[in-house]
Amino acid sequence: MLTIIKNELKSFEDLARNFATKELMPNRRTNDRYPFGAFYDEVLTKANDVGLFGVTLPEDCGGIGQGIAALSVILENLSAVDASLAGIIFTNVMAQEIMFSAGGKNFLCNIVGHNTDVHTALIAFQVYLNPAEIKPSLEAIKNKDGYILNGKIEYVVLGGIARHALVPAYIKGNDGYTFFLIDLTDKGLTKSEPIFSLGLHACPAVDLTLVNTRATLIGKEGDGARHFEQASDRMCSAVAAMQCGIMKGAFQEALSYSQERFQGGWEIINWSALRMLLANMAVQVKIAEMVVAATALAVEQQHPQWEKSARAAALHLSELACKLTTDGIQVLGGNGYMKDYGQEKRFRDAKQVQALLGLVPMRKLNMIGAVINPKMQ
């Protein structure tokens, strides 16, 4: 990160790096077996105890009261070891950001405030979908007691481990969609088995079926798209940070392997072609670090057109991470495809993180639309 950010947030950087080294690294392969293996509840509880889930929450909600820069530092350092926990934190914060944007702070504080049970405090969300791109399948009906929801909603991240979920639904007669908060223990709700995903295996998702499920309105009716976009623009910085962390992890493993692996009587790092590949990876990692730092600073200080900067950073680093993790596999040769090493997981994780916040082609079209017509910002 830039010096101004790195110095101010060094404690968060140290916290995330030490946590990742101690709690994630030793059991990375085992944790990645989920849903065919056990979920790492103990790690989740420890992460909550040290404050990783409350970084951006105000202090009166039981949080630490930091901004996107602190979140980015944490997600970057976690992702360098295992991006799955970063995905859980990202999903939870995205739901929180939407609730803040919609004026739902009181609801959020009631859920999270000083709650020591991490599962009760977590909020599930369809973090890989922009509801404006694919019409929500849930229908909301208003009655004398509030609202009830009916329908099926797919791939709700954290839906199998969280107590609450923030979901989009259409109210008959409204053009736009609306966000609602639901209790995942409601008797009118059923969950599918955990879905096996491409990457971020230990950041689980389920499908939900709702039958007359009680729901709490978050924001105004039909105003969901505005709240999603406001939260999404801020969280693009966090997406970029996760990809930067994955890149750093891939480069460090490739570098270490090339210094230890012998071929033809000397370390493979001395082969010119491989040395050039590592050089390109090193350049890309440094560029990614600068992009994440500049983007986080722009978001924090609300620089002119910070929204475009954040969107561009997320899109660019996602493509860069997918390429760099491919190179990371190549450095390890056949070993790069084996689960004994971390490169194949990083390749899958980079692809999964790329899908956060909606379809990549649509995000690019929205980006150029905002450039052509600033009123679309």
Brief sketch in words of this structure:
This protein is an alpha+beta fold and 377 residues long. The protein folds into three domains: 3-113, Orthogonal Bundle (Butyryl-Coa Dehydrogenase, subunit A, domain 1), CATH 1.10.540; 124-223, Beta Barrel (Butyryl-CoA Dehydrogenase, subunit A, domain 2), CATH 2.40.110.10; 225-376, Butyryl-CoA Dehydrogenase, subunit A, domain 3 (Up-down Bundle). It has helices at residues 3-8, 10-24, 28-31, 41-49, 68-79, 83-101, 105-112, 118-121, 224-260, 272-301, 306-332, 343-354, 360-372; strands at residues 123-125, 139-143, 146-157, 164-171, 177-183, 189-191, 205-218, 262-263, 266-267.
Per-chain topology:
Layout: H1 3-8, H2 10-24, H3 28-31, H4 41-49, H5 68-79, H6 83-101, H7 105-112, H8 118-121, E1 123-125, E2 139-143, E3 146-157, E4 164-171, E5 177-183, E6 189-191, E7 205-218, H9 224-260, E8 262-263, E9 266-267, H10 272-301, H11 306-332, H12 343-354, H13 360-372
Parallel strand pairs: 1-4, 2-4
Antiparallel strand pairs: 2-3, 3-7, 4-5, 5-7, 6-7, 8-9
Helix pairs in contact: 2-5, 5-6, 5-9, 6-9, 9-10, 9-11, 9-12, 10-11, 11-12, 11-13
Descriptive key words:
377 residues, alpha+beta, Butyryl-Coa Dehydrogenase, subunit A, domain 1, Butyryl-CoA Dehydrogenase, subunit A, domain 2, Butyryl-CoA Dehydrogenase, subunit A, domain 3, 3 domains, 5-stranded mixed β-barrel, two-stranded antiparallel sheet, 9 strands, 15% strand, globular
